[in-house]
């Protein structure tokens, strides 16, 4: 009977590791079948799976094809079309990259590279699809759109922030990304017009940042401070300081004119909440949690915002949301419990709001 010793166990373990190593690297080269999803699905089923219409997908594909195409077709390179659809599937499900890789017939590593490449290509078109329009015609269009909602004059856009869930970024500064709701996020600022399209987005601040801090350090604030937008105003909630170009609701309205101002303000500003809701419902990855590096998260936020604007432009229908996700997806704006004293601490900036109440809303009674 052979004696047992520790060296025997060690040899067995080494042999098992060697066999696992050989079985992994000696596997036969396999090219998985890759279906043409543009042809396979009709319009309704295509939108259910990718959350955008074929028309929108073709539009963005034409824009980025040269940026993401492989220079050759060696080693069965993934086509630009398949890379785009793989990325859209990731935005639409928020699942693990290995899952979207299986859906598209590629390895997890290839899926991750495709998502990064496509996302960066779409986000690089930001200046074309998300911009402050300063022509007189565009300004009048925005004013009329907001005025028709609740008769609030001179409105250029509605402003708010919303949290985009991420995994912990790690490191010494990880807690800066934990928001007041308890999870890690990027606090993302956006402005929308009356069509619910985003005209400005800032996606670089950690979740612990206050909405007013983000705004006061943004290029958007500098543009309005410099007077480039003339008499036009933004509408924000009580978490922002009241300024001549940023109007917030009154905390304690007393007169009928003040109550009418608040009602009109709330109804008009509500469009940014609806824009966030549509954006997050169309791309659940924004609420379920983006498990990538923060730099790529920022690009995903911008890329999905661009796709959101394109979907509105092409009148894409909103696909139904899986009932299992209804209670998971956060479609609200930023923290509702933020400090609401900011708007009253800037009394010297309140004359514009008071003028509107006294000279305009009092005449509507």
Automatic annotation (TrEMBL):
A molecular function (GO) term: metal ion binding
Cell compartment(s), UniProt: Cytoplasm; Nucleus
Family of this protein: Belongs to the HARBI1 family.
The protein, known as: Putative nuclease HARBI1
Sorted UniProt keywords: Cytoplasm, Hydrolase, Metal-binding, Nuclease, Nucleus
Needed cofactors: a divalent metal cation
Its job: Transposase-derived protein that may have nuclease activity. Does not have transposase activity.
GO cellular component terms attached to this protein's record: cytoplasm; nucleus
Domain DDE Tnp4: 159-309
Record-linked InterPro entries: HARBI1-like, HARBI1_animal, HARBI1_dom
Pfam families referenced in this protein's UniProt entry, alphabetically: DDE_Tnp_4
């Amino acid at each position: 009977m052979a004696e047992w010793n520790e060296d025997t166990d060690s040899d067995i373990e080494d042999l098992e590791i060697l066999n696992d190593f050989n079985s992994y690297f000696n596997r036969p080269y396999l090219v998985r079948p890759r279906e043409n999803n543009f042809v396979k699905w009709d319009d309704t089923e295509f939108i259910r799976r990718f959350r955008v219409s074929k028309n929108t997908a073709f539009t963005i594909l034409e824009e980025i094809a040269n940026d993401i195409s492989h220079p050759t077709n060696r080693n069965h390179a993934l086509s630009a079309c398949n890379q785009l659809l793989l990325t859209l599937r990731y935005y639409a499900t928020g699942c693990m990259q290995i899952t979207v890789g299986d859906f598209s017939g590629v390895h997890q590593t290839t899926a991750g590279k495709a998502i990064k490449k496509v996302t960066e290509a779409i986000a690089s078109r930001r200046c074309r699809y998300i911009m402050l329009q300063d022509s007189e015609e565009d300004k009048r269009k925005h004013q009329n759109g907001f005025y028709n909602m609740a008769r609030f004059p001179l409105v250029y856009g509605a402003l708010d922030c919303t949290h985009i869930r991420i995994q912990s970024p790690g490191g010494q500064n990880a807690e800066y990304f934990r928001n007041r709701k308890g999870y890690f996020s990027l606090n993302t600022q956006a402005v929308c017009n009356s069509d619910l399209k985003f005209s400005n987005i800032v996606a670089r601040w950690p979740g612990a940042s206050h909405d007013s801090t983000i705004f006061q350090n943004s290029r958007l604030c500098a543009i309005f401070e410099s007077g480039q937008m003339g008499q036009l105003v933004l509408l924000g909630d009580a978490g922002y300081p009241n300024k001549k170009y940023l109007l917030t609701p009154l905390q304690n309205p007393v007169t009928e004119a003040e109550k009418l101002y608040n009602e009109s303000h709330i109804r008009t500003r509500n469009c940014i909440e609806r824009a966030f809701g549509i954006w997050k419902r169309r791309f659940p990855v924004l609420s379920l949690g983006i498990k990538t590096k923060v730099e790529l998260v920022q690009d995903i936020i911008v890329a999905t915002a661009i796709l959101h604007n394109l979907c509105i432009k092409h009148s894409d229908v909103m696909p139904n949301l899986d009932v299992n996700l209804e209670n998971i997806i956060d479609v609200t704006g930023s923290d509702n419990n933020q400090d609401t004293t900011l708007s009253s601490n800037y009394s010297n900036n309140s004359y514009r709001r008071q003028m509107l109440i006294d000279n305009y809303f009092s005449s509507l009674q």
